[in-house]
Sequence to fold (500 residues):
Amino acid sequence: MSWMNRTTPEGKTLNEGYVSSIIISVLGVSFYCQSIGIDPSVGLTVPVGSPIATAVQKKLECFVTFVLVTPVYIIGGYHVRSFEFIWKDFVVVEIMMFLAYFAKIGFVMLSSLYMLMPILDSFCLGLLLTCDGIINMWYAMAMYEAELMGQQTYTIIFFTNLLITMVITPTVKYLYNPSGKYAGYKRLSILNSAVNTELRILACVYNQENVPSFFNFFEATNPVTKDSVVCIYVLHLVELVGRATSILVEHKQHKKTRARTSNSSDKIINAFNQFEQQNQGFTIGSCFTAISPFSSMHNDVSQIALDKRTNLVIIPFGELDKHPYRVVNQSILDKAPCSVGILFDHKNISVAPIDVSVSFHDVAVIFIGGPDDREALAYSMRMLDNPNLNLSIFRFTHIKSNRKTKKDGELISDLWDKIMNTNNILYKEEEVTDCADTTSKIKCLEDSYDFIIVGRRHDSNSPIVRGLDEWCVFKELGVIGDIFATSTFEGNFSFLVLQQ
Fold:
């Protein structure tokens, strides 16, 4: 299998002949064990994250789950005689089983509390370890067939395990909330961070194609002041395939000097290290690879953002309809303990070769009001030390509405102080009549600017955006970001959607 893994190009699927030979080998071992009188309990160990794991799982998962597992439960239920047991024996067996369950939960909780795990989490772990799966049922069947267990005892154990699993599964889902530890955490944001402090950004990468977009973004915005730098933490998110548990790997510093790379994570990290060497003011902090299912990827992102106290998490946009990455992005928006930005690179949608050397000179910010727009404006104000960048800020107001919050006014006042001291900034207020007028004026910016920064959430009752949510295709981008994402304009521009 190691030889098969080496001969398979990265990103390619495993040869069908290799998959067939692996499956035939497993079946051959099982047949040989049966022929010499050994009960074949055969497992298959494959390299984690390799093409072998993906190919074998895709071939066998459906067959094992829906074809092989079902007869096991049917055969297990065949020996059950639900109306043929004595109540005295039932009470004795149930007392023994529940004492065993309580003892297991108690010892697991004590061990977990000793390791400083929260009491609720340790209780949920104890409940999970009391669930008996198909292996325990298979052992009970083997003991019954070997006449080491009576039929009444087998029936009681069968129904008790079934009941325990039915109760514990929803209970754990209700009690265990991984994002609960972020509830009492003071969320970090760009707006609340001092200008002369280090700005920490967590870059979440799904694949190697996302890397040039991040480099273009960092070079475009370059939020480096005279007194601070940008620290970038890199997280490569990989779908969990071919193993049972998630894994989070922190790459060691010595990998920075490696000339040859062995997998996509190493290539991504190498690219970011080279970017650090070529761009002054950027430093690469820790680099991670998280291998987990799509349903829990956001937990890895939130945990690293919490540990490293990042001000901003940047995730690439998964534009495909109903793509799993879009679900991950939505979960990150809901759970992250800091600001989140979704990066949409319009430049690389229709062009196959990606130009990493692209530099943005004209950047625009759309300001309507609200915390997300204030976050976008605060980020843009950190970019003014870049002499090669021209920043234009458009504030949209309604003709008949004078609703202006105090926080919006304070930030605009700070902006005017910046305008008085810099020459590369333009501030303009645009009056709009309705959402149609808003859309038309926003679309006029596509061919005038290389990069656009917008906020994600807005007051749906505001006449500026009222009605746009009914036509919104990509909810995670907000109504303004959705206008750019669904645009038919073929020019080269990118945009960032920020959520505070």
Remarks:
- Residues 51-78 form the longest helix (28 residues).
- The first strand starts at residue 199 and ends at 205.
